[in-house]
UniProtKB/TrEMBL annotation:
Record InterPro entries: aa-tRNA-synth_II, aa-tRNA-synth_II/BPL/LPL, Anticodon-bd, Anticodon-bd_dom_sf, His-tRNA-ligase, HisRS-like_core, HisRS/HisZ, HisRS_anticodon
Origin species: Oxobacter pfennigii
Alphabetical list of HAMAP family matching this protein: His_tRNA_synth
Lineage per the UniProt record: Bacteria, Bacillati, Bacillota, Clostridia, Eubacteriales
Binding locations of L-histidine: E81, G82, T83, R112, Q126, E130, R257, Y261, Y262
Localization in the cell: Cytoplasm
All copies of domain Aminoacyl-transfer RNA synthetases class-II family profile, residue ranges: 23-322
PROSITE patterns in UniProt: AA_TRNA_LIGASE_II
Main location: cytoplasm
Protein's name in the database: Histidine--tRNA ligase
Pfam families: HGTP_anticodon (PF03129), tRNA-synt_His (PF13393)
Domain of life per record: Bacteria
Length: 419
């Protein structure tokens, strides 16, 4: 039996790659507008970075990592998110010595051993941005507004911004006490993972995907009522910056996000059009992460956006991207001399940045014309002995059927003048 791609992975086929390229280019162009530079980090990292950076009590570290020993016995993990590698690189290359904030973006595959389903893959791709070094709520609002600006440019509708604050270690301690008090009564009914989280990081129980746990935490106290003055002011600042741009948002106290390192702001942008896995973008602030990774105490904020879920959302809303699916010129050649000449001409056209192609399958003239149609050539030229003898060709506009006569030895200029 022929070998198939591993479970939970997806090939991007030629018919789909145009959409990928379109959204990736938009992401890059937008980052330029927002003064954000690209960072590329390795596909794998030391397992320790991922454990420390994401946190021992998260779903990712507890259940989803692709971890293996390499041939020298080192523990390696395929990157399950983009933030901790970006932080590691920022520290390793002393980028904090440059003017702050460091504004970075990445487009990267990420790997998580999940149960594959619609919108949930074992290898997916994320567009992420990070602002390192600013504690100001304007930075939080900027990352949210970039995500919304991207969706606006893609004409995505029906998105909901959900924001919350999970405070700092000071307010978290107070809140954890209240949450544990509440959960105590139902302790036995929590899933095994959450029982373990109860002592280590009770906040994570709010993010559990098990129905039973979800039911239990429904009426739990909410952290937003326990914020200290600084965190509360910060949250107000975020809201003000979102208000001034006219963004509507819900305050959703159940959002705590999947990673341990979050502080203060957490947010999710949700599409209601793609089923249960509707979070198209998630992010927040993680002021403790740099120190966790043995770096200087830099505050940080960012998001990760699933590109597959974005494309699913576009599809479900019937949004067609202006993907280029045409080539400029096809030359149908008849006979050996014409074939060589055609090969030479398409080469010259490409040098002039005009896309061009010819047959490579020894097709008949009829077959070549059919093929030209199939690949959406804008112009077709037939080249045979007669055309070679007379130094004359017809350039046919495939849309209008109109023909323009040109001299063969001036064909590049002739094509340039009509294209
Ligand atoms: P979820 O709650 O859906 O598991 P998460 O909290 O694990 O999400 P993040 O780690 O914040 O997600 O990842 C950022 C974004 O990446 C998500 O909002 C989503 O769009 C996308 N994403 C996460 N996991 C997957 C996956 N397994 N397959 C496809 N996209 C994913
Ligand atoms: Mg997850």
């Amino acid at each position: 039996m022929a070998i198939k791609a591993p479970r939970g992975t997806k090939d991007v086929l030629p018919s789909e790659s145009g959409s990928w390229q379109y959204v990736e280019k938009l992401m890059r162009d937008m980052c330029e507008l927002y003064n954000i530079k690209e960072i590329r980090t390795p596909t794998f990292e030391h397992t320790e970075l991922v454990q420390r950076g994401i946190g021992e009590t998260t779903d990712i570290v507890q259940k989803e990592m692709y971890t293996f020993l390499d041939r020298s016995g080192r523990s390696i993990t395929l990157k399950p998110e983009g933030t901790s590698p970006a932080v590691r690189a920022f520290i390793e290359h002393n980028l904090y010595n440059e003017p702050l904030p460091g504004k970075l973006f990445y487009i990267t595959p990420v790997f998580r051993y999940e149960k594959p389903q619609a919108g949930r893959l074992r290898e997916h791709h994320q567009f992420g941005i990070e602002i390192f070094g600013s504690k100001e709520p304007s930075a939080d609002a900027e990352v949210i507004s970039l995500a919304m600006d991207l969706y606006r440019r893609l004409k995505v509708k029906n998105l909901e911004i959900n924001i919350n604050s999970i405070g700092c270690s000071k307010c978290r301690a107070e809140y954890n006490k209240a949450l544990k008090e509440y959960l105590k009564a139902n302790m036995d009914e929590l899933c095994e993972t959450c029982k373990d989280r109860f002592d280590r990081n009770p906040l994570r129980i709010l993010d559990c995907k098990m129905d039973k746990c979800k039911e239990i935490v429904k009426d739990a106290p909410v952290i937003i009522d326990y914020l200290c003055e600084e965190c509360s002011d910060h949250f107000e600042g975020l809201k003000k910056h979102l208000d001034v741009l006219g963004y509507k948002y819900n305050i959703n106290p159940m959002i705590v996000r999947g990673l341990d390192y979050y502080t203060k702001t957490v947010f999710e942008i949700i599409s209601n059009d793609i089923g249960a896995q509707g979070t198209v973008c998630g992010g927040g602030r993680y002021d403790g992460l740099f120190e966790e990774c043995d770096g200087p105490p830099l505050p940080a904020v960012g998001f990760g956006m699933g590109i597959e879920r974005l494309l699913l959302t576009l599809q479900s809303q019937n949004i067609e991207l202006p993907v280029k699916n045409k080539i400029d010129v096809f030359i149908a050649a008849l006979g050996k001399d014409a074939e060589i000449k055609a090969f030479n001409i398409i080469n010259d056209l490409r040098k002039n940045n005009i896309s061009a192609d010819k047959d490579h399958m020894q097709r008949s003239l009829k077959g070549q014309m059919k093929y030209s149609d199939k690949i959406n050539a804008r112009y077709t030229i037939i080249l045979g002995d007669d055309e070679l003898d007379k130094n004359k060709v017809n350039i046919k506009n495939m849309e209008t059927g109109e023909q323009t006569e040109a001299e063969l030895d001036k064909i590049i200029d002739a094509i340039k003048s009509i294209i």
